[in-house]
Amino acid sequence: MIRASFRSFSMIGLAILLAACAQVQTTQSGLVGVNRTQTMSTLVSEAELNQQAAAQYRQILSQAKAQGALDTPAAQTRRVQAIARKLIAQVGVFRPDARNWTWEVHLLKSNEVNAWCMPGGKIAVYTGLLDKIKPSDAELAAVLGHEISHALREHAREQVSRQMAANVGLSILSAVTGSQAVADLGSSLTQVMFTLPNSRSNETEADRMGVELAARAGYDPRAAITLWQKMERAGGGGQPEILSTHPSSQSRIADLKQASEIVLPLYQGRKS
Predict the structure, then answer these.
(1) Active-site positions?
(2) Cβ distance 122 to 136 under 8 Å?
(3) 115-118 and 122-126 as β-strands: parallel, antiparallel, unpaired?
(4) pTM value?
(5) What are phi and psi of 37, to 5 degrees?
(6) Each residue of 184-238: pLDDT tens digit?
(7) CA dihedral angle for residue 227, residue 231, residue 234, residue 238, rounded to 10 degrees
(8) Could you tell me the keywords of this UniProt record (predicted)?
(9) Helix or strand or coil: residue 105?
């Protein structure tokens, strides 16, 4: 009877998961050929996630302003925003509707070596990235292009979708077996089997799209290679915060070299 009930619950859970998922393509492929079909949960809409991101962004900016850590120093802020504007002007090649996003770019005073772009185009760069890595304009464009690409591909929504699917499945399994240990084990297995491989895919997509955005904006795409090499060296005995969510490796460097060569004519064409 327990086995029959488990099978019934499993089939119901599978039906729920399948019904709540859709195969989508969030962006056009560009020259770099990013064309992986993505699976998104219909329970997590783009609009809802963008709304949540905007609210969190406002809170972060409010806290930074209260601490005197928002958009200072002014010269660094102007530099970051100028480079970001050039990149944002190119987003239509991958996603025409992103031209109409309410883009925002701010500098946060922090020792962290970090930068990110929330869903809907909410960008933050930390002064630690500028002070410790000392990126050239082209290297900073590589960072920003990478982060913008995560938003264009809706990688955050994709990850939330995966997590929601895993949680639904584990809740059903745990309810049937009555075992929290099963849920914990299942959570670890789900992370290893699904989250990590897809995260690597997401990073590769953001790398490739980022160098194309940079090249189209007039920045040498090969700077992405020197940037990530600097990031690794800056770690010393530890690891820059940005590398905790953006792992680097020799295979990544090799892929960046290949992608940079593909889009190099775009950069060279803008120079001539």
Answers:
(1) 147
(2) no
(3) antiparallel
(4) 0.81
(5) -75, 135
(6) 323 332 333 234 444 788 889 999 999 999 999 999 999 999 998 888 887 644 5
(7) 180
(8) Hydrolase, Metal-binding, Metalloprotease, Protease, Signal, Zinc
(9) strand
